[in-house]
Amino acid sequence: MLEEDIETSSSHSSHSVYGVPPQFDPEYFDDDGRPKRTGTIWTTSSHIITAVIGSGVLSLAWAVAQLGWIAGPVSMILFSLVTLYTSSMLAECYRYGDPIFGKRSYTFVEAVHNILGGLHYRFCGILQYLYLYGSAVGYSIAAPISMMEMKRSRCIHKSGGKDPCRISTNPYMIGFGILEIFVSQIPEFHDTWWLSLIAAIMSFVYSIIGVFLVTFQVAVNGTVKGTVTGGGAEIVSTTKKVWGIFQALGNIAFAYSYAQILIEIQDTIKNPPSEVKTMKAATVLSVAVTTTFYMLCGCMGYAAFGAHAPGNLLTGFSSYNPSWVIDVANAAVIIHLVGAYQVYVQPVFAFIERRAAKRWPQTKMEHKIFGGYNLNLFRIVWRTIFVIVTTFVAMLIPFFNDVLGFLGAVGFWPLTVFFPVEMYILQKGIPKWSSKWIWLEIISLVCLIVSAMAALGSVASIMNDLENYKPFDSEY
User: Fold this and answer.
1) pLDDT of amino acid 158
2) pLDDT value at position 17?
């Protein structure tokens, strides 16, 4: 099934000299016969920042609280270095063979198919699309929390802090789902550049406000909270503390995950300069910016709240005055997650629609309506169903930290480390048992162990939360 999709996505290419089909003017078309790509380092960086600085940044203060003052910051730095290193290797795999005239890979799974093939490809395809879908579920949980916080903040101020202001998540999840139904009608990933740009700006807005708020809280406290060894506010057994540490690693891993859509982002970049050069520069810029914000939000959040650091950083400031500051931050989170949701689900949309077009060609039929928009009935129906199902799943398991930790744990090693490393080794012809081969395999093995520990911690936490949970009856 996946192989047929690769054939469909690649069938547009009919190469002649240097890969340029003779019927296409190179002034308007790229070497694969597709319209000229226009992406730059800035649009590429905005896509990456939109994908990376998401709901994950809000959980970092909690993650640092579980790990402590040494392990917390060190873990974030190590994850950033691994992400930077493996993303650089993955960028080299966009073109198969020749780095300039080689065959393009339009998606992450297609790159795995072209270079590794076989079982690697099938495993990657299943895992990538499940991860992207899981990320959509995570965002469907995170955005409504910010919506609720805006109402909760006003409620607390109105009651003078006397009313706990417990609010059901369900109406807000449904509202976010309705919004995504409309936004999901953006036809292709390439068309989301403006949404990614807005989302990236919003991520800076709420990150800066978050840093300001936690810095202000540290000043009000007059002291830096937290301990070297970390640990939550509750007195728990050693086993539960270990699970908390493992889950924290998963949350940090999720905060740095974007490799699964790196190839899709790279496929938007214009040439010249080479796609690899632009992608590497954008990766360095984006990871440096995000790590700076992560360190500030995570560490300053821990300094402000100590062991009581909330799972969602902004929920710790519901009673802050002036309340409009919190409202602006939460509004920025919502806008950002609307864009991040699309960055993650557009590859899923493209996969299903290519499959449908191959089996039922009539699903490609479009009708021009107002504003030059092409109406596609299949796209409207299937994407609407996708969003509805995603919203339903989010309402069924609304555990913010647990979901992020599990996604980060399950996706980090295979998608961010294993496949990029294995593809790079084959692409560059690195000899087995050479010093570089051993080094790369050691990195992969260590990351596998970390991912396994994080997955165990997140599963244990989910099982613990399910003990007192009633479906569709969740409040914050």
Assistant:
1) 76
2) 42
* Cα(351)–Cα(112) distance, integer angstroms: 15
> Which residue, 4, 432, 58, is CA-closest to 255?
58
Most confident of 24-33, 104-113, 396-405: 104-113
d(CA 407, CA 400): 11
Collapsing DSSP states into helix, strand and coil, what is residue 372?
Answer: helix
- The answer to whether residue 90 is domain-embedded is yes
Residue numbers of the domain that contains 320: 38-466
User: Do 197 and 316 share a domain, yes or no?
Assistant: yes
For residue 126, what is the domain's CATH number? 1.20.1740.10
In eight-state DSSP terms, residue 89 is H
252 plus 319 within the same structural domain: yes
Q: How many helices (H) and strands (E) does the chain have?
A: 15, 4
Query: If we measure between CA atoms, which residue out of 297, 318, 330, 409 comes closest to residue 61?
Result: 297
The Cα 357–Cα 376 span in angstroms is: 12
Angle (nearest 5°) at CA 458 between 452 and 464: 140
- The reported pTM is 0.78
Distance CA 339, CA 88 (A): 24
Domains: count for the chain: 2
**Judgement on whether residues 64 and 7 belong to the same structural domain of the protein:** no
In this structure, the answer to whether residues 163 and 25 fall within a common structural domain is: no
Q: Are residues 44 and 25 in the same domain?
A: no
* Other Cβ atoms closer than 10 A to 102: 16
pLDDT of residue 439: 95
String of DSSP letters for 246-298: HHHHHHHHHHT--GGGHHHHHTTB-SSSPHHHHHHHHHHHHHHHHHHHHHHHH
Q: What is the rounded CA–CA span in Å between residue 44 and residue 57?
A: 20
CA-CA distance, 99 to 467, in Å (whole number)?
53
Q: Are residues 106 and 13 in the same domain?
A: no
Q: Express each pLDDT in 257-286 by its tens digit.
A: 777 788 989 998 988 888 999 999 999 999
The Cα–Cα gap between 51 and 467 comes to 33
